[in-house]
Design brief:
disordered N terminus, mainly alpha, globular
Length: 412
């Protein structure tokens, strides 16, 4: 696809081997999303020192998730049109700025501003910023597995980030540890250069769409909306669990290391679950695999309601939940590519991800509100069960096939 290089646009991206794209994208996702997941470790010490309830912190983290979802759409479009490099660099800088505002925060208002910056920043450095670049680099038959590598990288990031940040907090305190997080995020900047450059036509791409055509086609496709509904539930589950589990564990009288071990276990199990989710696309329709994933989450939440809460139970349930954690990402994103192709992949997946983040906002914020009112998370576990059953059902009618369109060949 030939395009003129105008002012403000980047040079065409060099053709890089798929393994290099996956390694660079995976490291960026692992750092950005791994460190994002540890924010729950700061809930109790930060709210205690600032003498605020859990609701303001929960609101700030919920807003971060919501802003991430809204930012993913325009940032995805920029990445699809001009390349991921500049989006990644800007996202890393904004994330570091958001963490610094957490470091200097004196009130819930300060945390809210921090949450806005964190949301925009992770929108430029998380999975949504990477799916387009990886999808275009991979041939169609390898896309589910290539996209699964991003989910696995996020799991590895979580696996490393929780003990890493916990040890730093123990060594120098929760506040100074935020400065260490900022320094760690700076590693993203040199990695972004690997993914710099204007996107070329993807392997197997035979249709050159305008942005308007991509919007119109996606919004008229019923299966796209079903995918959006299901991904709302994923966001609700994972954000609520990641942010509130440390406080839930502390409320049950367990040591803080139990929450760290449990969330680390989520990260380890997620690597395994995401790998098999990517491989499952070879054997069963992706919509059926997604239904199974959401249905299996029901048992994890039931365990938190009816089993005795101790270290073994919490860690064991976290392993089960981790197997079905980000395993939704390669299947959901691969279906977007199946529907519409990879040209506007980051932008269109950004819309699906916006629903995920609306769910994240709802889960994190509602948990804080219900806890402050009832002093218990029981109602949230029941809500999570109901939503898991809804998501398991809503994926079944999806038509897993490309849209029918009038072809306009891509020129070489």
């Amino acid at each position: 696809m030939q395009q003129k290089i105008g002012a403000g646009s980047s040079e065409p991206a060099k053709v890089r081997p798929l393994w290099l794209v996956i390694v660079a994208a995976g490291m960026i996702v692992g750092i950005a999303m791994g460190l994002r997941q540890v924010m729950g470790l700061f809930l109790k010490p930060m709210t205690t020192e600032l003498a605020i309830g859990r609701e303001p912190f929960s609101l700030a983290m919920a807003v971060a998730n919501l802003v991430w979802g809204f930012a993913a759409v325009p940032l995805g479009a920029i990445s699809d049109r001009y390349g991921a490099g500049r989006v990644l660099a800007a996202g890393a800088i904004l994330t570091m700025a958001g963490i610094y505002l957490m470091y200097t925060a004196q009130s819930g208002h300060d945390l809210l501003i921090s949450g806005i910056l964190l949301g925009i920043g992770i929108g430029g450095t998380g999975i949504t910023a990477m799916v387009g670049a990886v999808s275009r680099a991979a041939p169609p038959e390898k896309r589910p597995q290539a996209l699964a590598s991003l989910g696995m990288a996020a799991g590895i990031g979580g696996f490393l980030a929780f003990p890493y940040v916990h040890l730093v907090m123990e060594a120098i305190g929760w506040k100074a540890s935020l400065l260490v997080i900022i320094a760690t995020l700076a590693i993203i900047l040199p990695l972004a250069t690997v993914l710099a450059g204007k996107p070329r036509a993807a392997a197997g791409m035979t249709h050159n769409q305008s942005l308007y055509e991509a919007f119109s086609e996606a919004f008229a496709y019923p299966s796209f909306w079903l995918l959006i509904l299901g991904f709302f539930v994923c966001g609700f589950h994972v954000a609520f669990y990641a942010v509130h589990l440390p406080a839930f564990v502390a409320d049950k009288g367990l040591d803080a290391t139990v929450a760290v071990a449990a969330l680390t276990a989520v990260g380890v199990a997620n690597i395994i679950g995401t790998y098999f989710a990517g491989q499952s696309a070879k054997w069963i329709p992706k919509r059926y695999a997604l239904s199974i994933i959401y249905f299996m989450r029901v048992f994890a939440f039931l365990g938190l309601l009816f089993l005795p809460i101790n270290a073994t139970t919490v860690i064991g349930i976290s392993v089960v939940l981790g197997l079905f954690w980000l395993s939704t990402v390669p299947l959901t994103s691969a279906m977007v590519a199946t529907f519409f192709g990879p040209q506007w992949m980051s932008m269109l997946f950004g819309f699906v991800f916006l629903s995920h983040q609306l769910g994240s906002f709802s889960g994190v914020w509602l948990a804080g509100v219900l806890y402050d009112q009832t002093k218990s998370y029981d109602m949230m576990w029941w809500i999570s069960i109901a939503l898991a059953l809804f998501a398991a059902l809503v994926h079944l009618p999806i038509r897993e096939a490309p849209v029918v369109r009038t072809m306009k060949p891509v020129t070489a």
